[in-house]
Amino acid sequence: METEKLYYADPFLTRFSAEVLSCAPAEGGGYWVELDRTAFYPEGGGQPWDTGVLNGVPVTNVQLRRGAVLHRTAAPLAPGETAEGEIDWPRRFDLMQQHSGEHIVSGLIHAAFGYDNVGFHLGAEVTTIDFSGPLSPEQAADIQRRANEAVWRDEAVKVFWPSPEELERLPFRSKKELTEAVRLVEFPGADLCACCGTHVARAGQAGPILLLSCQKFREGSRLELLCGRRALDYLAGVKEENDRVSVLLSAKVTDTAGAVERLLGELQRQKERAARLEGAWCALRARDCSEGGDALLFEEDLTPDGVRRLADAVLSVCAGRCVVLSGDDGAGYRYAAGWTGGDIRGLVRAMNAALRGRGGGKPGFCQGSLQASRGEIESFFRALPPEDWAPDKP
Ligand SMILES: [Zn+2]
Question: What global pTM score does this model have?
Fold first, then answer.
């Protein structure tokens, strides 16, 4: 039978008493309980179902079946008994704020641009709305301003079931062809739309309204929306983050982006300076190796590019083979190895095989890494025959 829908009579009702009409096991566990009346909103119109308790038993799902509201419960309730119900009010009020904000924004966009709301998802974190036409960031910002002005006007929300004749005359939004009695929800000055959901009583209860993003989506656009407490919590989080950046950069909270830009510019100048100094240092270091023999060099803390640059610098002044390594015994060593006019690849293959290495390259130049200690690497080179490795310094 048709359940008396207390959530329509009073969307702010949180507790109620009702008679249990039936209770049947549900597929997949739990029970479906039917009451003669309920404040639990069943899933519908894009709005998720309510949760809460019936006689202390958790209600985990609520669905509408041919006018009857069915409550999924974790334990059975006896038909004929009185059930005391309580809905999870913070959750429901949050959903009402999001749903009402969605109506205000959709109505203003429809009036301004003629776009239809072609998709609506009320998620646990954000609400997304898809519109049938494109919106620029400036247009979205203007809609946000006007949506909050509607909130500040704080007009009472009107919910009514018009007669078919009245319905003919009313310019309401609707996503589908309506066959049954139509329930209209009006936010005066912002929206008039057919809807089966629960809404705030006054527009002020839905605010603030924050458009998080506006992206091109298919032929139209997708908005992400936060309303009420969600908008406030989000802005508080963003403020906290900005305050931290402000303290870290000793910048005004209204100039953090400018301070980050200046910092990035300084970082770029420092990178260029470090590269110039590294180039000069490589040239100086290479002068020590210019005696003609093979050179094995360990250097602390070189970047991968620094390892390559030092090997290049040594090879430009040294006729022999050169292997440059940087790293530590814990993390292993990165290497660059070369031989001007010769083929270093045989030595690199032997080194990789003996020292848990990987890497390779061209005949004259190879790069890679070794998972070995400095002692193991030095022993490997000491053990090579003179034709494979002839250091100019012992
Ligand atoms: Zn709606």
Answer: 0.79
